[in-house]
Design goal:
- The protein has 2 domains: about 35 residues, no CATH class; about 30 residues, no CATH class.
- The chain is mainly beta.
- A two-stranded antiparallel sheet has the order 1-2. Strands 3-4 form a two-stranded antiparallel sheet.
Length: about 70
């Protein structure tokens, strides 16, 4: 996990083939924090990037109209 901010350890419950993609539905069993001391992690939700600490869900659906 060198250089990673973190990782999710999951047990896959189901896989669904959708066109040329495969959707994995899984239960998160553990969250590992990486050794990298990097501030300012980003997430992506609701078609926009959000800074570390921002609420990502539920997101304001009015933002989608921007």
């Amino acid at each position: 996990m060198s250089g990673a901010l973190g990782a999710l350890l999951c047990n896959v419950d189901k896989t669904v083939d959708i066109g040329d993609h495969r959707l994995l539905i899984a239960k998160v069993e553990d969250i590992l924090k990486g050794e990298a001391n990097i501030n300012g992690a980003l997430s992506y939700c609701g078609r926009k990037y959000r800074a570390q600490g921002d609420i990502i869900w539920p997101h304001d659906t009015d933002e989608d109209e921007e």
